[in-house]
UniProtKB/TrEMBL annotation:
<protein>
    <recommendedName>
        <fullName>LYR motif-containing protein 9</fullName>
    </recommendedName>
</protein>
<dbReference type="Pfam" id="PF05347">
    <property type="entry name" value="Complex1_LYR"/>
</dbReference>
<dbReference type="InterPro" id="IPR045291">
    <property type="entry name" value="Complex1_LYR_LYRM9"/>
</dbReference>
<comment type="similarity">
    <text>Belongs to the complex I LYR family. LYRM9 subfamily.</text>
</comment>
<dbReference type="InterPro" id="IPR008011">
    <property type="entry name" value="Complex1_LYR_dom"/>
</dbReference>
<dbReference type="InterPro" id="IPR052151">
    <property type="entry name" value="Complex_I_LYR"/>
</dbReference>
<feature type="domain" description="Complex 1 LYR protein">
    <location>
        <begin position="11"/>
        <end position="68"/>
    </location>
</feature>
Amino acid sequence: MAPLPGAELVQRPLQLYRYLLRCCRQLPTKGIQEHYKHAVRQSFRVHSDEDNPERIQQIIKRAIEDADWILNKYKKQN
């Protein structure tokens, strides 16, 4: 299950970036939100030179799965 509606529409890196930043807003505290926003920005920079479409789709799929796991982790703690 996707953490936010619209995960199935993410096809490009910029869409993923925006989607993940929206996911960060769902986290419980400002400190946790800032931590994951920083991680999203760093990962975006690291993979910015990726040009293989298959690899880009793998990264998008994994990032959405990871976001789902993180949001579920914090929902269970509250």
